[in-house]
Amino acid sequence: MATTLLPETAQKVLTQETLRSAAKQSQRCLTTPVRLRRAIKKYLKEQEEPHMKRKVLRLSESFSQIKDVNSQLVTATSQQLVEDPLQSVDQSQRWKIKSSYGDIGLTYRDDETIAYVASRMPAVFSACHRVLKEVRRRLPEFSPARVLDFGAGTGSAFWALREVWPHSLEKVNLVEPSQSMQRAGQKLIQGQKDLPLIHSYDSIQSLTKSIKKSDREHDLVIASYVLGEIPSLKDRITVVRQLWDLTRDVLVLIEPGTPQGSNIISQMRSHILWMEKRKCRKSKDGADETTKDLVTQKNGAFIVAPCSHDGQCPLEKAEKYCHFVQRLERTSIQRTFKRSKGGQPLRGFEDEKFSFIAVRRGQRPQEPWPLDGLKFDTLKEQQAKRSPEDLEIDLEELNASQQADLIPFEEPDPVNYDSDVMESDVADENEEEEDERGHADLGGGWGRIIYMPVRRGKQVTMDVCRSTKRDGSEGQLQRVVVTKSKNPALHQQARKSIWGDLWPF
């Protein structure tokens, strides 16, 4: 992993606010929306299931068993199947599913569904909300009207969709083989206002048979926390190929932030990019010189997030795995039924770790890199330009800057903590919009901070996954060191950056 010391630079207009707004992708501690908390509370009250703590624990053990199955997959076979599936599967039968989703993986009974709603639904919602919020920030012009939610479960992704794009959704197709999960999802949305048109199916096959061919493409397709429940790698790839065929614009895959979940995302990422590159080569070979450029623009795929490039994942060689975290305030329901490890008091929050990929059809935009032509003063040059008035200390401004430099993710007070205070729906609907003054484009120049930056004195060290080529075809994991003396502007940016944010280099 290369170590880069950012060079000395001189000055060009670039406001700190614009840079900060564009780079910020992480979110502070998320509170489950009032309407979702009330829906969960109402649903659980109607069930009146005894021994809920035991059932929540049993569900957690089931998830652990799925992790064990995934870890037993042979790495060599997995890599061969992802990179070139034609080598290991007969061409005439290569993508015919012998077992549909629902016959394989984890099936949910009524008691497991109730335990899932009580313990896991807010956490899965938080991960989906974090990912979809980033897709919206990276693609400000993207407003999906038709959406497919594969492995919809009790509707965690659907609730996140309504929070992120409340006005654009027109039709949502849900694919969920568990009838128990379907019933729970329907009860949770009962009484909600301004719902889009919703159709539920138990498999992709039933969906494609029920709708016209012209209606099968969706602006957004999302599969959250579901691929890991399919123990066969071949079936996973088959499902992802089908989901990609049903995608008109953006495909989002989300898995738990474990080595197994990250490995699944990495494999699906490799396969989609390989598949589209192969399709582009075939289309170019069959096209004449005048239409080759047009064919290239229509075909292909590129990564919207988290990767800044479409090359091989550099973390594979580093023997690390790509994942992120979203802190979530625990609801009173979660605190009632969940247990802490070691008999310690249950914290008022939990950190949901997740891995994800957002893929878009087409070619990656060729846009200027964020620091192209930009020059910054060094600290010494800034001090030489100061006037006597600049040396006067503004105590209010000093206190504000010190507060901004505090390291995030401090533990809330467990005594006074309560996420279920009686709030009005108006507060949810009129929530302040985030600062959109800056926009991180998709041209490849924005790297991703993979782990929490390390602050030592007046320097900040970050591990950044970034593109090394202008076309975004290759990437590298670099250790970037930013010092205050060399570049005070970027040093201030680095001090405020956390795990999951973008970096303009």
TrEMBL record:
Q: Name one GO molecular function term.
A: iron-sulfur cluster binding
A Pfam match is Rsm22
What superkingdom does the record give?
Answer: Eukaryota
Q: Where is the stretch described as Disordered?
A: 409-442
Q: GO terms for biological process? A: translation
Q: Does the keyword Ubl conjugation apply?
A: no
Q: What is its main location?
A: mitochondrion
Checking SUPFAM superfamilies in the record gives:
S-adenosyl-L-methionine-dependent methyltransferases
Q: Which GO terms describe its cellular component?
A: mitochondrion
- InterPro entries registered for this protein in UniProt: Mt_RNA_Methyltransferase, Ribosomal_Rsm22-like, SAM-dependent_MTases_sf
Presence of the UniProt keyword Transit peptide in the record = yes
Keyword annotations from UniProtKB, A to Z = Iron, Iron-sulfur, Metal-binding, Mitochondrion, Transit peptide
Q: What does this protein do?
A: Mitochondrial ribosome (mitoribosome) assembly factor. Binds at the interface of the head and body domains of the mitochondrial small ribosomal subunit (mt-SSU), occluding the mRNA channel and preventing compaction of the head domain towards the body. Probable inactive methyltransferase: retains the characteristic folding and ability to bind S-adenosyl-L-methionine, but it probably lost its methyltransferase activity.
Name this protein carries in UniProt:
Methyltransferase-like protein 17, mitochondrial
